[in-house]
Write a structure and sequence with these properties.
Strand order of the largest sheet of chain B: 3-5-1-12-9-10-11
Structural class of chain A: alpha+beta
Strand content of chain B: 15-25%
Shape of chain B: globular
Largest sheet of chain B: 7 strands, mixed
Largest sheet of chain A: 5 strands, antiparallel
Distance between the termini of chain B: 60 Å
Number of helices of chain B: 20
Distance between the termini of chain A: 48 Å
Largest interface: A-B, 19 and 25 residues
Oligomer: heterodimer
Strand content of chain A: 15-25%
Chain lengths: 266, 780
């Protein structure tokens, strides 16, 4: 790791002002991506601003039909949270399969979506549930937030404060774990909103990151059941291919994971 | 068996320090004035080193020196050696490409060091390394074994035309060809044995400390065999004569073969410590481990097995291409030859065997022994062949094995090995019973109803351990003898120190070796300590690998114990005024048989050291040593059966049951043996399902971190169901065969046989990743 100056911010405002004063600062949430990358010397921020102790970024709220998870809440706290389990159990389940226990004690939802790894789990949940990303400046629809591999709508120095999820009628998540990294080799989140809209998002599959799967949405709109997806054809073009999965395999996984997610959603 | 004697499940003495974080590994050692090394490694698989500019780096803070490959060559540090000479079928010696510790002219794999920065801290060394400018001229590279032997392929070494190390044969080709020509059925199979990265938990590390006044070096290093390291560093690498070089291997966190070898980093640390006049430490990181620890396996094989009309095997012909990587590592040449082809008879009567092995250089990390070393490749091939044959001949795979089992011992195979004892039917019976083999068809049908493909796979392995009779291996080209030494030192108060040339890096010697002493003397193991891993303490030893430490190392201790006991009995007889022949040892006492006359062992020890009243002419003291050279290999064998389900939607494998019935001869500590089997099975299953060190066509490693290289984790593995059927090894007095590698040798074929049974298609390579299995299921 190169030399860097560590700051522990006590409020979002302080974090923003520290960022403005630094030449090349990075915000540190759970550190599950930034720290390994720094250790490998692939990132060399002049300053690291730790958001982990900011109280206003911690916690979960369920108000009516909206579940709000503050950005600094760890995976472990999310998967244990009674409101999460009650309102959107699929999120608790997704979180329980994320990384390993050490990762779940440190990693945060805000850190995960800000990084927007193309194989991360949360982007699929946000996209399928039509969530809203709250920052210190504005609200951004999930649709607009994720903009391709490791790219988001966040501006320089902008801090995610929370994610708000409309509570769905039904939701399910199924994941084929990457055998080495335990990210999603391909995973699918399916949701039926309370107004009857069907939204399906796949992660780990596409060369351009998390994506909606319109063909499966259409099939489920007609018939919310695993078998409705049998006849759907998913193209392998523009899907990721690597030593752990060909594009054709990932196309298959989109279907199979969607079917199992629907079954899990009930 | 006493509560701490042979056969007792004694809790491991060493675990207190390991699980409380008190282990002392090389990286825990800090010497006064110590500097830190960081290696500059080639990013290219094949390139000329046109120049190294270290001027900017030398001006950076904390930099002590930047040393290059040309300097180590100029200082006449020797090239790395390969210690087992193999002769090709045309009579020519194997072709050794020169391997300097750092490359002065040409790099031949990604990760090969060209220079080293020595600095005041690890981070300062890394900072400065980034300022060293190496000018490379890239050359075409080749990573695949078949591509490397084609005409026009990039050439690695001028010494080895066609990238061929050797073309070696064993057995009777005419007889094997005749058997195939006359066969009622011939079973043919092509298999790839995937390349693995060993991944010991502790990465390699070294600290070298040169004392200029004494012209003496001390090397702390992660070694499975510190005396062999000293021998090679001294005799071949010109570091220092043996009496001026002390090698210490303290606590070592796993080896699996990868820490047998003497690597460039240790050589450079020693040489650099003299050059800079200060201790030099290097601790590798995980990526360096992936790039530079010797890899394992990497065979491509075609085999044909002949059967008569009664399904008896009549012959076997094998051709294997072994990928050695860019250089010949220390024992690499022996792995695909004498550790592989000599086991191709498996557990079966095969009258005629012929094997040809072509060793090939490629622009990849060197390949050498990794847990099992050659024997997993042989066992996998034979057990895949037997399963394939059963499917082709439409007979039960267990029955086909039984029909061909060797049942008379000793048994001379056509490929050198003389199996001394075994009961292969007993192991198979135990495994089949444990897994309810008879009930499988019903379970398969039920799984099918649930949409799952269930399969069962058998693997009956045999291995040659207790490495090895020195005369025999010498005649086959080994550069060393493979005996072991021991010394038993009884202190005046009766506590005992046992010095051994074996090295424990996870095997639990500090417990099991004490159990032998407890068994013989009836003293508690708390009164005994095991000393190992330091060339200044232990006179000589060959180290730990090849499941040899109990069969060879512990037998050496037994021999020294017998000498010590013989002297102690004389002292006791003298003190008790009895005849030496009447003295028996019971519960820590030397007794006159059939009487109540006795003297406690500590009193015998004290008598030996006070020397006030010893038999006439006896030397004072109680200390004996022994060297033990085994008379034969040992032959652990067993039957593994795996039952699993494949999800046809994803290709993912889920274990239902995994049973292992092993014959290791006598067990010293069954709990430790079970731990060894668990670890071996994890690595065998890891090879079958997950692990693969992959290079792209240009020799760039694709799997240089745990983000891409799949190590088996607890949730990838079943809960193992272990049992033992025992035939004692007649080759050593304790009847021990060895248990360290069996799991890794036998498991992978059981897994692949089960998956191919489940999916109904026989051709499936390792690792059987979900993607690969799914594509095989759905292939036309």
């Amino acid at each position: 790791m190169y030399q860097t100056i560590y700051h522990r911010a006590s409020s979002v405002d302080e974090a923003v002002s520290l960022f403005a004063k630094s030449t090349e600062a990075k915000f540190l949430a759970g550190g599950q991506t930034l720290l390994p990358v720094m250790k490998q010397r692939l990132a060399s921020p002049s300053d690291v601003i730790d958001l982990g102790k900011i109280k206003e970024l911690q916690g979960v709220e369920l108000l009516g039909d909206v579940l709000t998870i503050k950005a600094g809440t760890t995976y472990f706290d999310i998967m244990q949270n009674a409101d999460v389990k009650k309102a959107i159990p699929a999120i608790a389940y997704l979180t329980s399969m994320l990384g390993d226990p050490a990762v779940r004690y440190r990693g945060t939802i805000g850190g995960s979506i800000a990084n927007n790894d193309p194989a991360a789990d949360y982007p699929a949940a946000l996209l399928a549930l039509g969530a809203t990303v709250k920052t210190n400046k504005r609200s951004i629809a999930a649709e607009d937030f994720f903009q391709g591999l490791f790219t988001t709508a966040l501006e320089d120095g902008e801090i995610i404060t929370a994610v708000s999820f409309p509570v769905p009628a039904k939701a399910g998540y199924e994941k084929m774990r990457h055998p080495a990294s335990r990210f999603a080799l391909t995973a699918v989140f399916v949701a039926q909103t309370k107004s009857g809209e069907i939204r399906v998002a796949a992660t780990g599959a596409s060369e351009s990151g998390v994506m909606r799967v319109p063909a499966i949405e259409a099939a489920l709109k007609a018939n919310w059941s695993p078998s409705a997806i049998d006849s759907v054809s998913i193209s392998a073009s523009n899907l990721l291919a690597d030593i752990h999965g060909t594009a054709e395999y990932r196309a298959n996984l989109i279907k199979v994971m969607a079917q199992r997610a629907v079954a899990a959603a009930g | 068996m006493g509560v701490e004697g042979i056969g007792a499940r004694v809790v491991r003495k060493e675990d207190k320090r390991f699980i409380t974080g008190k282990g002392r590994y090389v990286d825990d050692i800090k010497l006064q004035g110590m500097t830190h090394a960081h290696f500059i490694r080639s990013p290219h698989a094949h390139a000329k080193v046109k120049g190294i500019d270290s001027s900017a780096a030398l001006k950076m803070p904390g930099v002590v020196a930047v040393l290059t490959g040309q300097e180590i060559v100029d200082d006449k540090v020797g090239n790395l050696i390969c210690g087992w000479a193999i002769t090709s079928k045309d009579g020519s010696p194997m072709k050794m490409g020169a391997w300097p510790a750092m490359a002065p002219e040409t790099v031949r794999f990604v990760g090969q060091a060209v220079a080293v920065v020595i600095a005041e801290s690890k981070n300062l060394a890394r900072d400065a390394a980034e300022a060293v400018v190496v000018n490379y001229e890239e050359l075409p590279a080749v990573a695949d074994v078949h591509a490397a032997i084609k005409s026009g392929a990039p050439q690695l070494h001028p010494e080895a035309p066609g990238n061929q190390v050797y073309d070696w044969v064993i057995g009777d080709e005419g007889a094997a060809d005749a058997a195939i020509a006359k066969a009622a059925n011939v079973v043919k199979l092509d298999v790839t044995n995937n390349r693995l990265a060993p991944n010991a938990m502790e990465p390699r590390a070294a600290i070298a400390d040169y004392d200029s006044a004494e012209e003496h070096f001390t090397l702390y290093t992660t070694s499975q065999n510190p005396h062999v390291a000293r021998l090679v560093l001294s005799a071949f690498y010109n570091i220092a004569p043996e009496h001026k070089l002390r090698v210490i291997a303290p606590d070592v966190g796993g080896g699996f073969g990868s820490k047998i070898f003497i690597y460039p980093e240790e050589m450079v640390a020693l040489w650099a410590s003299k050059k800079v006049g200060r201790p030099v430490k290097w601790t590798g990181d995980r990526t360096e481990a992936f790039l530079t620890d010797a890899h394992g396996r990497d065979h491509v094989t075609h085999a044909e097995m002949a059967f008569d009309a009664n399904n008896k095997i009549t012959g076997l012909k094998v051709k294997t291409y072994a990928n050695f990587g860019a250089y010949m590592s220390l024992f690499s040449s022996s792995v695909p030859t004498y550790l592989y082809a000599t086991l191709l008879s498996g557990q079966y009567n095969i009258p005629a065997i012929h094997a040809e092995v072509v060793g090939v250089y490629t622009n990849t990390t060197p390949v050498d022994a990794y847990r099992g070393a050659g024997r997993p490749e042989a066992s996998y091939l034979i057990e895949r062949l037997m399963e394939t044959a059963a499917r082709q001949l439409k007979v039960d795979p267990a029955a086909l094995r039984r029909l061909n089992f060797i049942t008379q011992f000793p048994h001379q195979t056509p490929v050198i090995m003389a199996y001394d004892a075994g009961d292969f039917n007993a192991s198979l019976d135990a495994a089949m019973k444990a897994i309810d083999y008879a009930g499988f068809a019903g379970r398969k049908a039920k799984a099918k109803a649930d949409g799952k493909l269930r399969g069962i796979g058998v693997s009956c392995y045999i291995e040659a351990c207790g490495i090895a009779p020195s005369k025999a291996v010498g005649s086959l080209g080994a550069g060393v003898g493979l005996w072991e030494s021991a010394e038993v030192r009884v202190n005046p108060v009766g506590t005992i120190e046992v010095l051994t040339g074996s090295h424990s890096h996870g095997q639990g010697h500090e417990t099991t070796f004490c159990q032998l002493v407890a068994e013989r003397l009836g003293v508690p193991i708390s009164q005994v300590s095991i000393v190992h891993g330091d060339t200044d303490k232990v006179q000589f030893g060959m180290g730990t690998y090849g499941s040899r430490s109990a069969a060879v190392g512990l037998t050496a201790i037994l021999k020294a114990m017998e000498k010590m006991e013989s002297k102690a009995k004389k002292i006791a007889a003298h003190a008790l005024e009895a005849s030496e022949g009447d003295i028996v040892i019971e519960n820590g006492e030397f007794k006159v048989a059939g009487t109540d006359k006795a003297i406690a062992f500590p009193m015998v020890a004290l008598a030996a050291y006070t020397a006030h009243n010893l038999p006439d002419g006896m030397e004072p003291g109680l200390k004996e040593s022994a060297f033990y050279d085994p008379t034969n290999f040992t032959f652990p064998a067993g039957a593994y059966i795996c039952e699993l389900e494949v999800d046809p939607g994803t290709g993912k494998t889920t274990f239902v049951n995994f049973v292992a019935a092993d014959d290791f001869g006598r067990l010293i500590n069954p709990m430790i043996v079970e731990g060894q089997v668990h670890g071996g099975l994890a690595q065998g299953i890891g090879q079958a399902l997950l692990e693969h060190a992959i290079y792209d066509a240009n020799g760039q490693p694709v799997t240089a971190s745990f983000m891409d290289y799949s190590m088996p984790r607890a949730d990838d593995l079943p809960s193992f169901n272990l049992s033992h059927t025992t035939t004692l090894c007649p080759g050593n007095p304790l009847g021990i065969k060895g248990c360290g590698e069996a799991g890794a040798i036998g498991a992978s074929a059981a897994v692949i046989n089960a998956i191919t049974d489940a999916i109904g298609k026989n051709n499936l390579e390792m690792p059987a990743t979900p993607d690969r299995v799914w594509r095989t299921i759905h292939a036309a």
